[in-house]
Amino acid sequence: MVNGIATVWVPVTDMDRAVAYYRDVLGLSLKSQSEDWSELETGGLLIGLNARESATSSDGGGAVISFQPDGSIEDERDELTSRGGELTGEISEHPWGRILPFKDSEGNDLQLYGPPAD
Q: How many other C-beta atoms lie within 10 A of the C-beta of residue 8?
């Protein structure tokens, strides 16, 4: 039934602000931009920004995108905050890996993910 991921899309309320965040703060490559839909790419995965009236929902249930950092989570945390990223917690350790939660410019939950230490 499923043969892979075609795209991941994220709801946004301000397209210009969201594109600037994903491009300038996270360093993703901008592929296309319009008022209603923009596409950025990282590691072969296409991320679509979809304009709508409200980016977040009080009902919950939204997906969280986990990004693989270029370096250590600690180094990337410092880079993320220096570029204006909003952390929502500290680095947490789990048997399945380490995560650092943050939000994008539209209030969507994101995180950096690192595999567990050997």
A: 11
22: its two tokens: 């994903």
Domains and CATH numbers, the chain: 8-54+63-114 (3.10.180.10)
The whole-model pTM stands at 0.79
CA distance 25 to 61: 25
> Over the stretch 29-88, which tens digit does the pLDDT of each residue have?
999 999 999 999 999 999 999 887 555 555 555 678 989 888 889 999 999 999 999 999
> What are the DSSP calls for 40-78, one per residue?
EEETTEEEEEEE-S-S--TT-----EEEPPSS-HHHHHH
**Count of residues for the chain?**
118
